[in-house]
Each structure stands twice: as C-alpha cells, then as structure tokens.
Amino acid sequence: GQSLEQPSEVTAVEGAIVQINCTYQTSGFYGLSWYQQHDGGAPTFLSYNALDGLEETGRFSSFLSRSDSYGYLLLQELQMKDSASYFCAVKGGGGFKTIFGAGTRLFVKA
Amino acid sequence: SQTIHQWPATLVQPVGSPLSLECTVEGTSNPNLYWYRQAAGRGLQLLFYSVGIGQISSEVPQNLSASRPQDRQFILSSKKLLLSDSGFYLCAWRSREGGEKLFFGSGTQLSVL
Fold first, then answer.
1. What are phi and psi of A94, to 5 degrees?
2. Which of A13, A43, A89, B102 is most exposed by smallest CB count within 10 Å?
C-alpha cells in the first residue's frame, strides 16, 4: 500500500520562507505531487516531481529524493493568501491512482 | 478548455436514505475519473477510480458504489446512507495521455443526520 507523512501544521510570517516536508512509502512509485486547498474549496495542483531534484514554479519550489522517499514544498515570499492546506500525493498503482497525505495546514501571520 | 461539473454543492440527507452524486467532464475524451472523500480537516481518501466506461476500481470497502455509464460521467451512489458517510466528496479527472495533474470539481458537502 501507500502512506505519506507530513506535519499537521506550520506557522510562518508574511514575507518569510517555509518548507513543508513529506515522506512516503509506496510500491511502484511514479512521482510526488503537491496540491493547495483553501478552506471550503477544491484542491489545486501546484507541482510534480518524477525525478530527483528541485522544480521551481514562481514562488513555489518542490524537491524530491527518491532514494530517501522524501520530498518538500518550499514557499518563498509568503503572502497572506498562501494560508491554506498543502497536500503531498504519490502516484502509484500502475500509474492510475493518486494517494494523498493528511495535509499540512499553513498559517501565515502578518 | 476542459471543465468538470459536480453537483449538488451541499446535501443534507437522513440516515438510511439513498445517495446519488453526479460528476461530468467536458472538453476531453477518455479521462481517468476519481471520487475522493475528505473528512473535516483531514486528507483526501481515494474511494473509486475508473479508466473507462464500466470499469470501476474500489479502494475502500464501504457503503458506497460508483458507476461510469458514459465516457465523461461518473456517479457515486449509496442505497442506505450511514452517519459515517458524511464528508466532502470530490470528483476529479486526469488526462489519459499521461500528465500528472488531477483536476478537481468544486465538491459536495454531504451531511448525514
């Protein structure tokens, strides 16, 4: 089966940098994704790493180490609107299934 | 462009009543389709996925079932709802031609009383 672990909550100050870690266990690993979800809304895709290394998309970056079964999401220049839940997810099961972690609630303070 | 429609947005149902949630996708063909459930403040639990018409894979034994009667239609059903079926239900699709991104519908908040 698959399992993912990520911190339940992170608090940071506006303008700062925050890193949300994710460790996973899965068979047939294809890649690690990150999604953002605001309260009451649907998750939206942020990034995907299939290979080791860092992927940068604007203020957001995502890192993967396949040998360590570990990844992180890095958010820079935090804004109040970044307050949301962030989920890591693994694609497995023959490439059809995406399994999500329990999510990290990010609180951005002024 | 592709869009995903999910309805209703909210639903309050008594215990023991039936359920039918519908999801349709427009602007794409042969999508992989998914139903997830999210308890308040929790992660997304994969319930069902489908890679084609009539093909349903169940992830969690439960009181729910899913059907895909048409290529871009995915239905979540129950014959008799339980209190534990309450939650936020999300439909999603992914392109069959690879790509990682899951596109989610706006969700249905189901309260079973």
1. 75, 10
2. A13
Interface A–B counts its CB contacts (< 8 A) at 50
Say if A35 is an interface residue toward chain B (CB within 8 Å): yes
- Residue contact B102–A98, C-beta within 8 A: yes
| pLDDT of B77 strictly over 70 | yes
Which pLDDT band holds residue A94 (cuts at 50, 70, 90)?
confident
What pLDDT does residue A29 have? 86
Question: Would you call the peptide bond into B8 cis, given omega within 30 degrees of 0 as the criterion?
Answer: yes
Confidence band of A5 (pLDDT split at 50, 70, 90): very high
Distance from CA of B92 to the nearest CA of A (A): 10
- DSSP, residue by residue, A30-93: -EEEEEEE-TTS--EEEEEESSSEEEEETTEEEEEETTTTEEEEEE-S--GGG-EEEEEEEEEG
The reply to whether residue B44 touches residue A43, judged by beta carbons under 8 angstroms, is: yes
- The C-alpha angle A27, A92, B95, rounded to 5 degrees, equals 165
> Which of the residue ranges A15-19, A82-86, B42-46, B76-80 would you say has the lowest mean pLDDT?
B42-46
Residue of chain B with shortest Cα separation from A34: B101
Pull the structure tokens for residue A107.
């609180």
Q: CB contact, 8 Å: B97 with chain A?
A: no
Give percent of chain B with pLDDT exceeding 70: 98
**Does residue A48 contact residue A56 with C-beta atoms inside 8 Å?**
no
